[in-house]
């Protein structure tokens, strides 16, 4: 399975949690912005993590949404799991 | 006790979004019942519904709310926002716990629940959405409305099948009476998915007719069940004096009287308690039967239920004693939302002095001795009775008036 | 009219046994009824533990037709309603049906029956367009949880106000609160009120798995529910029902009824914050407690026992601890608090009524039930949670609280009547 990229993560976030017209995801440097500041709460992140697990066939730790508070951190954890395999 | 008045109204109905559109179409007698479009209903024994087709959720709600909300919650959030806007009330300007919400539900967010059941049984538990933990449940509309508008006062959720729309308004009136500045209340409902459809069909009251003009005929000799629909109405209730204090000078009407009763078990031989609900509501409103200008009947559309309602109305008002109408004939029955929509239509009738028609009923059962309004009728109205009945035996009756019977001018 | 309202009958079906006595024996002994799920194979689920009722509907006297048409939640409600009526000594024939009502709380209604029927009409999930021909007539009863109130009303013979109240996990407090109000305002003289939930089904387990609200401590089911403990990691789903006979005090006195408690205060608030999350400061629960106390004329030092919501999620137990401190001040540190969810799990809407039952039985017996499995308190949960072992204590006034999805927060004050019986 290929890597999770920012483009794909953005799509998943939009599907799982919706996107505001003013969403910061649309542009700018969001890689290191906290998900909370991007407007995604814990529930949105749980939904997103579940979708990633299914789509990428990875198993993420229960606390992945606590551990990874920015897109860069989340992508790193997901891509590590993809490399390591289940 | 001062009056509890309706200062805001939000309507989402098959007949229109907003009170104006709904009222104008209703007075034209234009039915919104048609073939089901929400899903392919061809295979089912009933294929007609009163659907809301003009509502585009993204036009009315923040995108963030869309993935986590069922169809009926989206409608309810829109109706609540309109009601609050209509009342020109800002929850942030009220006392900290000064505004709450009571809604009625019949079956929760059933369409959302259907999708998640499908995922669970087709693909496995890990596919079930995090939002399933609340998006389908009966309390979801009260919760989402309170969150969206920052309302932290007393709240509630009632489930009494199709009587719920009135019961929720009555419960909100209690909260206004014990000091809550403003309450959002009412019901918006609907389960437009195959799973919800089959569950409703199982109840045995849905018409199997294919002609929209023949499918829902309350009090008619050809009554053969009803047509389900989506929608309802939400209101803002306030204490009259409180409303005046914040500069409100007009309102839709007063919630003057209410009562709820329950029918004895099927087969017990005891009579229905619907008549008692009506009499208690009149007594609560301190209103005589002859002050009621029109009755918005429940109009179940099944002979046995129609007969019971007609008997109750005849017992209270006398044969042909009061105009009776069922505007639901244009929308179908909206589960818990139906009685709330009737209440909205009743308030509009009070304001306009016009009675909306019961459409398609051409042969009322003569023995019922009802003055059934089948064409729009002009009549100055000061008090209106709304009757609602829920499957299982729930009866509710509510009296709305133009002004408090004992208070001064407005 | 503002009449005083008392509890004169108690009926319980809970994990660990049917009947108020078995329920009290279990919770006052600090025993737990949580175990690996037996209703279905829990292997595919993250959390595989629940507190199931050992409940035999036929053995409890329900007829074959009642069993067929009622979801398990309704069966639990009707059986506990029978017990409370019997316990109250009311002669059903002497009740005025028009002055008698019913309020049943339930968070998720007939969810078990719904899912079972869904599996059939969808042919195991294969068909999106579910097959009408396989639908049973009572599917409609499952569709509308108002059927719970209807079943209990038929049992009681009630023809006054009847409703189901469904405010998520505060349903069991709110239903009783609403019934109290109907008597107090003069609409009814007798109400049978309480709550029931039977949520232990795959869809419920899956949705709580998805938000990681339930504990994954599958290797140790009997100690999995750990409210206020440092090692807590979610709640254990439960099921059950508790129902009460509520009466106008004068009505109870006239017939010389035993009075368990008077309900002297109730209030509910919303946090308007998040559908599943809680603000850490506990402000809205504290406000509900404050208003319930004010209505009851109760001061913090009057409260002898608090039955906590204590679900055992990280967030809830801190939220609630903050709410107690905020509403009771220093007194919060000196009031025994316990969570029976440590023993019978969290039965969603039903639990609020089961907790009221725990309060009145604590009053009757002079024993406060413990919080089981509490070995190492969370440093942020620094109140007296009565760990492990029940405590003898005279309880004249009790506070019970609940908190639920949607942001609902409720609080109720119960007071032992002056004198033994009324």
What would you note in describing this structure?
The complex is a heterotrimer of chains A (86), B (410) and C (422). Chain A is 52% helix and 0% strand. Chain A has 86 residues and is an all-alpha fold. Chain A has a single domain (6-19, 28-84), classed as ACP-like (Non-ribosomal Peptide Synthetase Peptidyl Carrier Protein, Chain A), CATH 1.10.1200. In chain A, helix 1 (6-17) packs across helix 2. With 410 residues, chain B is α/β, with parallel strands linked by helices. Chain B has 2 domains: 4-245, Thiolase/Chalcone synthase (Peroxisomal Thiolase, Chain A, domain 1, 3-Layer(aba) Sandwich); 253-401, Peroxisomal Thiolase, Chain A, domain 1, CATH 3.40.47. Chain B has helices spanning 19-28, 57-60, 71-87, 110-122, 132-135, 140-149, 164-177, 194-202, 240-245, 274-284, 303-317, 337-352, and strands spanning 4-13, 16-17, 33-35, 48-50, 99-104, 156-159, 182-189, 231-239, 253-262, 294-296, 323-325, 354-355, 371-372, 377-378, 383-390, 394-401. In chain B, strand 10 (294-296), helix 11 (303-317) and strand 11 (323-325) form a beta-alpha-beta unit. Chain B is globular. By secondary structure, chain C is an alpha/beta fold. Chain C has 2 domains: 5-254, 3-Layer(aba) Sandwich (Peroxisomal Thiolase, Chain A, domain 1); 265-415, Thiolase/Chalcone synthase (Peroxisomal Thiolase, Chain A, domain 1, 3-Layer(aba) Sandwich). Chain C contains 13 helices and 16 strands. In chain C, the strands form 3 sheets. In chain C, strands 1, 2, 5, 6, 7, 9, 10, 11, 12, 15 and 16 form an 11-stranded mixed sheet that branches. A 3-stranded mixed sheet of chain C has the order 3-4-8. In chain C, strands 13-14 form a two-stranded antiparallel ribbon. In chain C, helix 3 (72-88) runs parallel beside helix 6. The longest helix of chain C has 17 residues, at 72-88. Chains in contact: A-B, A-C, B-C.
């Amino acid at each position: 399975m290929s890597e999770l990229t920012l483009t794909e993560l953005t799509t998943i976030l939009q599907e799982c949690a919706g996107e505001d017209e003013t969403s910061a995801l649309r542009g700018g440097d969001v890689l290191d912005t906290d998900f909370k500041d991007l407007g995604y709460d814990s529930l949105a992140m749980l939904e997103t993590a579940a979708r990633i697990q299914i789509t990428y066939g990875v198993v993420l730790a229960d606390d992945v949404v606590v551990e990874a508070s920015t897109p860069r951190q989340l992508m790193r954890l997901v891509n590590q799991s993809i490399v390591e395999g289940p | 006790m001062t009056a509890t008045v309706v200062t805001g109204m939000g309507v989402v109905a098959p007949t229109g979004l907003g009170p104006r559109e709904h009222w104008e179409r209703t007075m034209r007698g234009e039915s919104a019942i048609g073939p089901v479009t929400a899903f392919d209903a061809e295979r089912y024994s009933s294929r007609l519904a009163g659907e809301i087709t003009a509502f585009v959720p993204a036009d009315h709600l923040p995108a963030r709310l869309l993935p986590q909300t069922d169809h009926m919650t989206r409608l309810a959030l829109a109706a609540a926002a309109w009601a609050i806007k209509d009342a020109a009330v800002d929850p942030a300007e009220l006392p900290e716990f000064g505004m709450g919400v009571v809604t009625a539900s019949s079956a929760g967010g059933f369409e959302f629940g259907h999708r998640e059941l499908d995922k669970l049984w087709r693909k496995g538990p890990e596919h079930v959405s995090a939002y399933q933990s609340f998006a389908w449940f009966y309390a979801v509309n009260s919760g989402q409305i309170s969150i969206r508008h920052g309302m932290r006062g007393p709240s509630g959720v009632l489930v009494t099948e199709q009587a719920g729309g009135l019961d929720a308004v009555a419960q909100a009136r209690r909260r206004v009476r014990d000091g809550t500045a403003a309450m959002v209340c009412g019901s918006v409902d609907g389960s437009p998915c195959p799973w919800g459809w089959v569950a409703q069909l199982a109840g045995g009251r849905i018409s199997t007719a294919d002609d929209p003009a023949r499918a829902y005929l309350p009090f008619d000799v050809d009554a053969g069940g009803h047509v389900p629909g989506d929608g309802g109405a939400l209101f803002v209730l306030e204490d009259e004096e409180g409303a005046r204090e914040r500069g409100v000078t007009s309102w839709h009407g007063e919630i003057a009287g209410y009562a709820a009763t329950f029918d004895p078990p099927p087969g017990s031989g005891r009579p229905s308690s619907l008549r008692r609900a009506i009499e208690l509501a009149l007594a609560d409103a301190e209103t005589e039967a002859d002050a009621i200008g029109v009755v918005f009947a429940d109009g179940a559309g099944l002979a046995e239920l129609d007969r019971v309602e007609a008997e109750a109305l005849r017992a209270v008002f006398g044969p042909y004693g009061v105009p009776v109408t069922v505007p639901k004939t244009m929308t179908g029955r909206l589960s818990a939302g139906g009685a709330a929509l009737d209440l909205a239509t009743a308030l509009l009738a009070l304001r306009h002095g016009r009675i909306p028609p019961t459409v398609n009923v051409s042969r009322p059962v003569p023995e019922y001795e009802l003055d059934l309004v089948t064409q729009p009728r002009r009549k100055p109205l000061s008090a209106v009775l709304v009757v609602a009945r829920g499957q299982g035996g729930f009866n509710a009756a509510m009296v709305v008036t133009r002004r408090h019977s004992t208070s001064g001018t407005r | 009219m503002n009449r005083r309202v008392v509890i004169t009958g108690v009926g319980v079906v809970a994990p660990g046994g049917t009947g108020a006595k078995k329920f009290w024996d279990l919770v006052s002994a600090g025993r737990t009824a949580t175990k690996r799920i037996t209703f279905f194979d829990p292997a595919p689920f993250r959390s595989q533990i629940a507190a199931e009722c050992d409940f035999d509907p036929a053995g409890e006297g329900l007829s074959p037709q009642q069993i067929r048409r009622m979801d398990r939640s309704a069966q639990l409600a009707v059986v506990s309603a029978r017990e409370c009526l019997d316990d109250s000594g009311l002669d059903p024939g002497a009740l005025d049906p028009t002055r008698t009502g019913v309020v049943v709380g339930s968070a998720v209604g007939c969810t078990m029956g719904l899912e079972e029927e869904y599996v059939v009409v969808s042919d195991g999930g294969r068909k999106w367009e579910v097959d009408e021909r396989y639908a049973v007539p009572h599917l409609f009863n499952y569709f509308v949880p108002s059927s719970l109130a209807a079943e209990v009303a038929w049992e009681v013979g009630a023809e006054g106000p009847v409703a189901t109240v469904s405010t998520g996990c505060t349903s069991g407090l709110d239903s009783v609160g609403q019934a109290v109000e109907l008597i107090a305002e003069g609409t009814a003289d007798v109400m049978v009120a309480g709550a029931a939930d039977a949520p232990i089904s795959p869809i419920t387990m899956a949705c709580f798995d998805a938000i990681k609200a339930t504990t994954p401590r599958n290797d140790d089911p009997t100690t999995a529910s750990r409210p206020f403990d440092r090692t807590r990691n979610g709640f254990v789903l439960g099921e059950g029902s508790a129902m009460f006979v509520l009466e106008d005090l004068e009505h109870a006195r006239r017939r010389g009824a035993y009075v368990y408690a008077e309900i002297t205060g109730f209030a509910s608030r919303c946090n308007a914050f998040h559908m599943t999350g809680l603000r850490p400061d506990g402000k809205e629960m504290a406000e509900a407690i404050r208003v319930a106390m004010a209505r009851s004329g109760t001061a913090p030092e009057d409260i002898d026992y608090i039955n906590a919501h204590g679900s055992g999620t990280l967030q809830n137990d801190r939220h609630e601890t903050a709410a107690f401190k905020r509403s009771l001040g220093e007194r919060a540190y000196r009031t025994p608090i316990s969570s029976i969810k440590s023993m019978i799990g969290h039965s969603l809407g039903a639990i609020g009524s089961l907790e009221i039952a725990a309060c009145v039985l604590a009053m009757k017996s002079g024993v406060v039930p413990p919080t089981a499995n509490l070995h190492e308190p969370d440093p942020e949960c620094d109140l007296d949670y009565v760990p492990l072992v029940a405590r003898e204590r005279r309880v004249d006034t009790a506070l019970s609280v609940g908190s639920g999805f949607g942001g609902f927060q409720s609080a109720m004050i119960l007071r032992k009547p002056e004198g033994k019986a009324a």
